[in-house]
Amino acid sequence: MSYSNEFIHPKDQIVDIMRRIYGYGMTTTSGGNLSILDGEGNIWISPGGVDKGALTRDDIVRVKPDGAIEGKHKPSSEFPFHKAIYQMRPDVKAILHAHPPALVSFSVAGKIPDTSIYPAAKNVCGIVGYAPYEVPGSEALGKSVAKAFAEGHSTILLENHGACTAGATLLEAFQRFETLDFCARLINNAMRLGTPHTLTPTEIEFHALDRNAEFKPFDVSGRTSKEIELRTRMVNLIHRAYRQRLFISTEGAFAVRLDAESFLVSPYGIDRGSLAPEDLVLVRGRRYESGKVLSKAAWFFKEIFDAQPELKSVIAAQPPYLMGYAVSHEKFDPRVIPESYIMLREVPVFPFGEHFRGVDKVARTISPRYPVAIIENDAVISVGRTLIESFDRLEVAEYSAKATISAAALGGMKPIGDDQIAELVQAFHLIP
């Protein structure tokens, strides 16, 4: 479902976002509630007591401005706080509440995830508020949550009760919710490895600078069949990366070379879960397809392609287990199983911002010899001679990171030894 226009019925939006949060393990069969306030004052809300894993548009309830209820179910028991927020915040048109385990872990510990762990998170979530515990479904809970939103927050952690987010659209509310959960998962993973490192306001501002200033728009005249096919393949893998949680809806980028001068790149600011082939941006030299929003990483991808003619694909992603290493600044050891080392080799690590300050060094390092790299507090870079090769490496790297973090509870990982590594290099003709 694309959110590029305003003609999607509230029922369909609620079903789509509920499918995402249930599919991602962010809520249970009975948990979570979403609502939308339309232009006529109706509140469309998910029902109470209905299986969230099988929700359909016919299950969605409408509460009219006069309080009349239309639908075959009762509205969610949390309707009071949805209503209270809409009354308190005229700018809010959508609300999401659910109980993902990572956020619940913070909720029950009485702590707020620090969004400074990742550069874009604070901009998406804003300053995160906190609402003290009240009985679910009660007017007291409605007042507690509405009070936190009245203070200007759009992202709230509820004591012993998960999180609640709001936005001008349901997608915006979801992206705040998803990003806060992402931060919670990064912090939890990093703490299993060591100490999470946060970014300073100056570092976050430095990261946000536009480095695409030299790129100028141009009008495309005609498409090749190769480009059209590649757009479909890229979008299919972007959607898969999103389903695999290697991306979140606001972050993660693909770039694939078309020829020596041109590549396709994912756009900035479009939901990764609903991206369409026509949303991708054609880059030719330092010109980009007019009418599109160029990825903020386009300049970086071009530097890699220019430095590494053999490479055809680059992915910048934020998979949560590898990012646990990225934010703890602990060394990830890819000598997990033979496949891990064969696919990943050694994984170089660059300090936060190194690819801005020393892009030549980074672009020369990320190569067929070092196909996966970590940039601290920022991204995992995976490259390949084909699109599927770079994607496969990213998956293998994330699965390996998950295994090594889990191994800590068993006494730690015993890596493959040097002799075995030498055998792999010889047997699989790896670049020495």
Detailed description of the structure:
This protein is α+β, with helices and mostly antiparallel strands and 432 residues long. 39% of the residues lie in helices and 16% in strands. It is built from 15 helices and 17 strands. It has helices at 10-23, 79-88, 101-109, 121-125, 139-150, 170-193, 201-208, 225-243, 298-307, 320-328, 338-344, 354-357, 359-365, 387-407, 418-427, and strands at 33-37, 43-45, 61-63, 69-70, 94-98, 129-131, 155-158, 162-167, 216-218, 253-257, 262-265, 281-284, 287-289, 313-317, 349-350, 372-375, 379-384. The strands form 2 sheets. The protein has a 9-stranded mixed sheet, with helices on both faces. An 8-stranded mixed sheet has the order 4-3-2-1-5-8-7-6, with helices on both faces. β3 (61-63) and β4 form a beta hairpin. α9 packs across α13 (359-365). The protein is globular and about 70 Å long. It starts with 9 loop residues before the first helix and ends in a 5-residue tail after the last helix. The model has no long low-confidence stretch (mean pLDDT 94).
Question: How do the strands and helices of this protein lay out in sequence?
Answer:
Elements: H1 10-23, E1 33-37, E2 43-45, E3 61-63, E4 69-70, H2 79-88, E5 94-98, H3 101-109, H4 121-125, E6 129-131, H5 139-150, E7 155-158, E8 162-167, H6 170-193, H7 201-208, E9 216-218, H8 225-243, E10 253-257, E11 262-265, E12 281-284, E13 287-289, H9 298-307, E14 313-317, H10 320-328, H11 338-344, E15 349-350, H12 354-357, H13 359-365, E16 372-375, E17 379-384, H14 387-407, H15 418-427
Parallel strand pairs: 6-7, 9-13, 15-16
Antiparallel strand pairs: 1-2, 1-5, 2-3, 3-4, 5-8, 7-8, 10-11, 10-14, 11-12, 12-13, 14-17, 16-17
